[in-house]
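User: Sequence in, structure out. Go.
Assistant: Echoing your sequence, followed by the structure tokens.
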Amino acid sequence: MVTGASEIVGGVILTGPTAGAGAGVVAAGAGTMAMGTAITAHGLVTARSSLVNMQQNSANFKKSVAESKASKSQKSTSNKTGDSSKSTSQGSSSGGEGKLYSNKGVLQEKFNGRKFDFKKVNDKYRDVGTDWTANGDYIYVVTKENKLIMAKRSQAGHTGLTAGQDVRYAGQMNFSNGKFKSWNNASGHYLPDAKDASNVIDIIRKNGIVDANMDNFISISK
């Protein structure tokens, strides 16, 4: 720039050599500002990228947690279902909810005698209706409704107690002066399996014969 020349820099009129120098400073400042702007822009891009990554990682984490909870819930439901099935199966075994024995509805003899309802009182089994002491041999059936029906062996047959209906079990019980001695599966009409005796123990006990168990059960071959 020649002496005497003037230049407007940043709103200030510069003259002579000062004008050229001022222009250079301003240009340098502008360059620095441009570089700063570029750096700032790069920083914003990097920050935005990091934010996107953080958001994506957070979403993936939440998804992983949700899938884990769903998996645990399914396992829990499966276990409960398994336990429920197992419990139902065990209930059928111990509660007498298994198969029924049929006589095809044929009444082979008519029952005219007394049905007994024995309960243990003062260590002896007595009939609720008559207070008679249980003594001797009695036939019994466990009905579909889980009731125990008993009568003197000499007075009835098993189908006579049920009018030929299906039963859960049938056999005979023996008492001696009020003491329970044994029970079995002796029924020529229903022919129950000895292996199914354990299915009705709980029912028989709930109906009053509390001393019935597999230790005093006598298996009778068909």
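User: And one key feature?
Assistant: Residues 1-15, 18-32, 80-96 have pLDDT under 50 and may be disordered.
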